[in-house]
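INTERNAL AUDIT FORM
Audit reference: QA-55
Scope: verify that the stored structure record matches its stored sequence.
Auditor: D.O.
Record contents follow.
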Amino acid sequence: MFPIRDHNPSGGTPYVTYILMAANIGIFLSYFGIMEDARQINAFWMDWALIPARLDHGQGTYTLVSSMFLHGGWMHLAGNMLFLFIFGDNVEDEMGHLGYLLFYVATGVIAGLAQYVSAPVSNVPTVGASGAIAGVMGAYLLFYPKAKVDILIIFIVFFRIFPIPAWIILAVWFAMQFAGGVASDPDTGGIAYWAHAGGFLAGLALATPVWLKRGGPGYWRRTKGHPPHPEVLYTVTTSRIPKVSRRKRGPWT
């Protein structure tokens, strides 16, 4: 189960969201060629990934930012860019281009610090934009809790798209990160659950001043938790490809 789009159009062009996506993709492509070489990629992670033990020794502070633009594989990158594409444009709408950029970097740094606090002596490299994107999701929840988000549910051979309110998918996602953080051992690697949870909470906190400027609870009463502009309606259209009927072929054909 994962979101594939929302029904919340942006009021302008989300330049910063597009630039962040391009930066993440471009940087990934720049080192993709060494990922099959264990020695080279491990040396690369040592230099640029967030390694809590390095921070604990007062080293590699810059990796709180650099690690946000690194990914461990195509699916890792694709998943993060999908979430950024869905939720980033609307948050950029609310905060403005510069404010959104500063917000994104700040939530990513806080997410990295949350991961560090969870395992300060770990030597496991942490990479990915998901902490910062979790902050974007937290802000989205605050601004548009009832915006419709389409989720794709896949169960063996069955799949279907359902529109549900944003607060449900985001609350479930946060609960999964929190539960994963409690149940997992950050010293053994895997998903950086505490970075996700920390980034999400940071996004909620840092977006609150903007929400209050819009009127706080009054903003929710005016919009009823929905986007402040008409939602996008997606419909299934009939295919333009002509249908060719199958007829039983006789011995004369």
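Auditor finding: record pair retrieved intact. The radius of gyration is 21 Å.
Action required: none
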